[in-house]
Design brief:
This protein is an all-alpha fold. The chain is 57% helix and 3% strand. The protein has eight helices and two strands, in the order H-H-H-H-E-E-H-H-H-H. A hairpin with a 2-residue loop joins strand 1 and strand 2. It is globular. It starts with a helix and ends with a helix.
Protein backbone atom coordinates (compact mmCIF):
# COMPACT_ATOMS: atom_id res chain seq x y z
CA UNK A 1 0.00 0.00 0.00
CA UNK A 2 3.00 2.34 0.35
CA UNK A 3 3.07 3.04 -3.39
CA UNK A 4 -0.69 3.63 -3.57
CA UNK A 5 -0.60 5.91 -0.52
CA UNK A 6 2.34 7.86 -1.98
CA UNK A 7 0.62 8.31 -5.34
CA UNK A 8 -2.49 9.59 -3.54
CA UNK A 9 -0.39 12.18 -1.70
CA UNK A 10 -0.84 10.46 1.67
CA UNK A 11 1.88 9.63 4.14
CA UNK A 12 3.06 6.04 4.12
CA UNK A 13 3.28 6.13 7.92
CA UNK A 14 -0.01 7.64 9.07
CA UNK A 15 -2.40 4.72 8.79
CA UNK A 16 -3.56 3.30 12.14
CA UNK A 17 -4.61 -0.36 12.17
CA UNK A 18 -6.61 -1.50 15.19
CA UNK A 19 -5.72 -4.99 16.35
CA UNK A 20 -7.94 -7.62 17.93
CA UNK A 21 -7.05 -9.29 21.21
CA UNK A 22 -6.04 -12.38 19.23
CA UNK A 23 -3.72 -10.39 16.96
CA UNK A 24 -2.02 -8.72 19.92
CA UNK A 25 -1.48 -12.12 21.58
CA UNK A 26 0.03 -13.54 18.37
CA UNK A 27 2.31 -10.53 17.94
CA UNK A 28 3.53 -10.88 21.53
CA UNK A 29 4.40 -14.53 20.82
CA UNK A 30 6.14 -13.53 17.58
CA UNK A 31 8.12 -10.87 19.44
CA UNK A 32 9.63 -13.63 21.60
CA UNK A 33 11.10 -15.07 18.38
CA UNK A 34 12.07 -11.88 16.53
CA UNK A 35 13.12 -9.90 19.60
CA UNK A 36 14.04 -6.33 18.89
CA UNK A 37 14.43 -6.75 15.13
CA UNK A 38 13.04 -3.96 12.99
CA UNK A 39 10.53 -6.26 11.30
CA UNK A 40 8.13 -8.89 12.62
CA UNK A 41 8.65 -10.96 9.48
CA UNK A 42 12.26 -10.32 8.48
CA UNK A 43 13.52 -11.44 5.08
CA UNK A 44 16.90 -12.90 4.26
CA UNK A 45 18.63 -9.60 3.50
CA UNK A 46 19.34 -6.69 5.80
CA UNK A 47 16.43 -4.28 6.04
CA UNK A 48 14.07 -6.54 4.11
CA UNK A 49 10.80 -8.18 4.99
CA UNK A 50 9.36 -11.40 3.65
CA UNK A 51 7.46 -11.03 0.39
CA UNK A 52 3.95 -12.01 -0.58
CA UNK A 53 5.55 -14.91 -2.43
CA UNK A 54 6.94 -16.25 0.85
CA UNK A 55 3.39 -16.43 2.18
CA UNK A 56 2.14 -17.99 -1.06
CA UNK A 57 4.81 -20.71 -0.89
CA UNK A 58 3.82 -21.42 2.72
CA UNK A 59 0.18 -21.79 1.64
CA UNK A 60 1.24 -24.16 -1.14
CA UNK A 61 3.09 -26.24 1.42
CA UNK A 62 -0.06 -26.39 3.52
CA UNK A 63 -2.05 -27.81 0.59
CA UNK A 64 -3.84 -24.66 -0.58
CA UNK A 65 -2.62 -24.77 -4.20
CA UNK A 66 -5.44 -23.48 -6.39
CA UNK A 67 -7.58 -22.77 -3.34
CA UNK A 68 -6.13 -19.63 -1.76
CA UNK A 69 -3.27 -17.16 -2.02
CA UNK A 70 -1.95 -14.58 0.43
CA UNK A 71 -3.70 -11.62 -1.19
CA UNK A 72 -6.94 -13.62 -1.29
CA UNK A 73 -7.34 -13.17 2.45
CA UNK A 74 -8.20 -9.52 1.81
CA UNK A 75 -10.89 -10.57 -0.67
CA UNK A 76 -12.23 -13.19 1.71
CA UNK A 77 -12.42 -10.67 4.54
CA UNK A 78 -14.14 -8.09 2.35
CA UNK A 79 -16.67 -10.61 1.03
CA UNK A 80 -17.48 -12.15 4.40
CA UNK A 81 -17.70 -8.81 6.24
CA UNK A 82 -19.93 -7.34 3.52
CA UNK A 83 -22.24 -10.38 3.76
CA UNK A 84 -22.58 -10.12 7.53
CA UNK A 85 -26.11 -9.13 8.56
CA UNK A 86 -27.93 -8.36 11.81
CA UNK A 87 -31.72 -8.45 11.57
CA UNK A 88 -31.43 -8.31 7.79
CA UNK A 89 -29.25 -5.18 7.78
CA UNK A 90 -25.55 -4.83 7.11
CA UNK A 91 -23.51 -5.21 10.27
CA UNK A 92 -20.74 -3.00 8.82
CA UNK A 93 -20.98 -0.24 6.23
CA UNK A 94 -19.16 -0.88 2.96
CA UNK A 95 -17.16 2.31 3.43
CA UNK A 96 -15.93 1.12 6.84
CA UNK A 97 -14.70 -2.18 5.39
CA UNK A 98 -12.96 -0.34 2.55
CA UNK A 99 -11.40 2.08 5.02
CA UNK A 100 -10.11 -0.75 7.18
CA UNK A 101 -8.51 -2.41 4.17
CA UNK A 102 -6.87 0.94 3.35
CA UNK A 103 -8.46 1.17 -0.06
CA UNK A 104 -7.99 4.80 -0.84
CA UNK A 105 -10.96 6.93 -1.77
CA UNK A 106 -9.94 9.86 -3.98
CA UNK A 107 -13.33 11.61 -3.75
CA UNK A 108 -13.57 15.18 -2.53
CA UNK A 109 -15.55 13.97 0.50
CA UNK A 110 -12.75 11.58 1.48
CA UNK A 111 -10.11 14.29 1.10
CA UNK A 112 -11.89 16.57 3.58
CA UNK A 113 -13.31 13.94 5.94
CA UNK A 114 -10.42 13.00 8.22
CA UNK A 115 -12.43 10.92 10.68
CA UNK A 116 -10.54 7.64 11.10
CA UNK A 117 -13.66 5.92 12.55
CA UNK A 118 -11.35 4.11 14.92
CA UNK A 119 -14.00 2.90 17.43
CA UNK A 120 -16.00 1.27 14.60
CA UNK A 121 -12.85 -0.23 13.07
CA UNK A 122 -11.85 -1.67 16.47
CA UNK A 123 -15.27 -3.36 16.63
CA UNK A 124 -14.91 -4.64 13.06
CA UNK A 125 -11.46 -6.13 13.68
CA UNK A 126 -12.52 -7.84 16.91
CA UNK A 127 -15.59 -9.24 15.15
CA UNK A 128 -13.38 -10.52 12.30
CA UNK A 129 -10.93 -12.22 14.68
CA UNK A 130 -13.79 -13.85 16.59
CA UNK A 131 -15.30 -15.03 13.29
CA UNK A 132 -11.97 -16.57 12.20
CA UNK A 133 -11.72 -18.33 15.57
CA UNK A 134 -15.25 -19.69 15.15
CA UNK A 135 -14.45 -20.96 11.64
CA UNK A 136 -11.29 -22.61 12.92
CA UNK A 137 -13.18 -24.25 15.78
CA UNK A 138 -15.94 -25.51 13.48
CA UNK A 139 -13.74 -27.85 11.45
CA UNK A 140 -16.70 -29.46 9.66
CA UNK A 141 -17.64 -26.25 7.83
CA UNK A 142 -14.03 -25.45 6.93
CA UNK A 143 -13.36 -28.95 5.60
CA UNK A 144 -16.60 -28.92 3.66
CA UNK A 145 -15.76 -25.58 2.05
CA UNK A 146 -12.31 -26.81 1.00
CA UNK A 147 -13.73 -30.11 -0.30
CA UNK A 148 -16.36 -28.25 -2.37
CA UNK A 149 -13.70 -26.09 -4.05
CA UNK A 150 -11.58 -29.11 -4.95
CA UNK A 151 -14.48 -31.00 -6.54
Amino acid sequence: MATERSEAGKSEDDYVIPLSRQAVALLRELHKITGDDEYLFPGRGDGRTISENTLNYALLGLGYKGIHCAHGFRSSASTMLNRERVNGRRRFERELIEMQQDRLDASTRAVYDRDDRLPERVDLMQFWADKIDALRDDQSSVQLAVADRRA
